[in-house]
Design a protein that fits this description.
The chain has helices at 27-31, 51-58, 77-90, 104-116, 130-136, 174-190, 193-201, 203-206, 212-231, 252-261, 268-285, 291-303, 314-322, 351-361, and strands spanning 5-9, 15-20, 37-43, 62-68, 97-102, 122-127, 141-146, 149-156, 161-165, 333-339, 342-347. The chain is built from 14 helices and eleven strands. Strand 7 and strand 8 (149-156) form a beta hairpin.
C-alpha cells in the first residue's frame, strides 16, 4: 500500500488532512498535547468499524464513546443537547477534545458539539464515507438542521486534523460511493477539470473503493476545497469576481431543497448532482455557457449512476430555496459557470428562468 498523502490547510488555525490506509495511530499526533479526555462521537451502526480508532484512543486517553442516530437524524438540537449533557457529566474541559467517526451528518453534528462546548474544543474528524471525506470533514463548517431547512444553525470551527482512512471505504455500498462522486464531480466543474477527465476515462474505476482512480479523485477534491477555504474561510467573498467559499455551494441551493422535500431520503450527493445539472441549465438559458458544457453535466453525473432530474413540486422547492442560507435578504443567489472552472454569482435570477430550467430537467430522475 502506498504511503499516506498529507495535504496542509493553512490560515489562522492550520491543520493537516492525511489520506491513506490504516491511519488510526496518527490520532494522538493530531490531537496534540494536553488532552486528557476524548469524546468519540460515532454513527450507531459503525461499532466494529470504529474499533481501531477506539483502541488507539483508549491507549492514550479517558474515552467517552457516544453513539449517534444514523444520517440526518443525528443533526438535531436534541441530539446536540444529549451530547452536551454527556460532556458535562464527564467533566470535559477546554483542554479536552472530540473525535468524530462517521459520515457527513456525524461530522456536522460532532463538529457543532465541539464548536459550542465551552465555546470551542479541539475536534479531529475521521470520515467514513467518500462524501464526508471530500465535503463535511474539511473546511470547518459545522451545523444542525431545523424544521425550516438544512444546516441553518451552526458555526465555523476548524478541526485539529482530518484522517481520511481509505480502508474504511471497503464494503461501502456503491450508492454511497456515488453520492461522494456527486461532490467530487462538482469540484471538477468549478475548479479542477482533471477530475472530469478521470471520471470520463474510467467511470467504473471511479466507483471502486480500492482503486487508484478513486484515491486520486478524493485527493484532488479535498485540495480544491482546501484552496477555497484557506482564501475565504467564513464565506465573506472572493476576489476578482470569484465567489470565494460560496463556490462550494455549486448546485446546493436546489439540492438542499430536494433533500428537505424528500425528508432527506435522497442522499446529499445525489441531490447535488441534480442541483448542478439545474444550474448548468440556468447558465445555458442565460447565455453564459455553451450547450456542450451544459450537456456535459448530465452526461458525467449520469455516467456514475447519479440522478440528473427530479419530479418534485417546483413551487414548494422554490419556497425552500428562498430561505436557503446562501440567500441575501429576499434575493436568491446561485453559483453558475461562465466557463469551465470559471464560477460566478448570479444574483436575483428571474423566476420564469428558474422555472423553465427546472422544467427542462424534471422527469429525468
Amino acid at each position: 500500500m502506498s504511503e499516506p498523502t498529507t495535504l496542509h490547510v493553512g490560515g489562522a488555525s492550520p491543520y493537516d488532512v492525511v489520506i491513506g490506509h490504516g491511519l488510526a495511530d496518527r490520532l494522538p499526533g493530531l490531537l496534540g498535547e494536553g488532552v486528557e479526555r476524548v469524546a468519540l462521537l460515532f454513527a450507531g451502526d459503525l461499532n466494529e468499524l470504529a474499533r481501531p480508532v477506539l483502541d488507539a484512543l483508549v491507549a492514550e486517553y479517558d474515552v467517552l464513546a457516544l453513539g449517534l442516530p444514523d444520517g440526518e437524524n443525528a443533526k438535531t438540537s436534541s441530539v446536540a443537547n444529549d451530547c452536551w449533557e454527556a460532556l458535562g457529566e464527564a467533566g470535559f474541559t477546554r483542554s479536552d477534545a472530540v473525535v468524530t467517526f462517521g459520515g457527513g451528518a456525524t461530522t456536522d453534528l460532532g463538529g457543532f458539539v465541539a464548536a459550542s462546548w465551552l465555546r470551542g474544543v479541539k475536534v479531529v474528524h475521521v470520515p467514513t464515507t467518500v462524501l464526508a471525506m471530500v465535503d463535511a470533514a474539511v473546511g470547518g463548517k459545522t451545523g444542525i438542521n431545523t424544521g425550516a431547512g438544512k444546516n441553518l444553525v451552526g458555526a465555523f470551527h476548524e478541526p485539529s486534523g482530518v484522517l481520511c482512512d481509505l480502508a474504511l471505504l471497503d464494503g461501502l455500498p456503491v450508492e454511497e460511493v456515488r453520492a461522494g462522486l456527486g461532490e467530487i464531480i462538482k469540484c471538477g466543474f468549478i475548479a479542477d477539470p482533471a477530475i472530469l477527465t478521470l471520471v470520463e476515462n474510467d467511470p467504473a474505476a471511479a466507483q471502486e473503493t480500492g482503486s487508484a482512480v478513486l484515491r486520486e479523485l478524493v485527493t484532488r477534491a479535498i485540495q480544491v476545497k482546501i484552496d477555497v477555504v484557506v482564501d475565504d474561510l467564513k464565506e465573506t467573498g472572493g476576489r476578482d469576481g470569484h465567489p470565494g467559499r460560496e463556490v462550494l455551494n455549486y448546485g446546493h441551493t436546489l439540492a438542499h431543497a430536494i433533500e428537505r422535500a424528500t425528508d432527506y431520503r435522497i442522499r446529499h450527493g445525489e441531490a447535488v448532482a441534480i442541483g448542478c445539472v439545474f444550474v448548468a441549465e440556468v447558465a445555458r438559458r442565460s447565455g453564459l455557457i455553451a450547450d456542450e458544457l451544459a450537456d456535459r453535466h448530465a452526461r458525467l453525473f449520469g455516467a456514475v449512476g447519479l440522478p440528473v432530474g427530479f419530479d418534485g413540486d417546483w413551487d414548494e422547492l422554490l419556497e425552500t430555496m428562498k430561505v436557503d442560507k446562501k440567500s441575501r435578504g429576499s434575493q436568491l443567489r446561485l453559483v453558475v459557470l461562465h466557463d469551465l472552472a470559471d464560477p460566478r454569482i448570479l444574483a436575483g435570477p428571474a423566476e420564469d428562468l428558474l422555472r423553465a430550467s427546472y422544467a427542462a430537467l424534471s422527469g429525468g430522475a
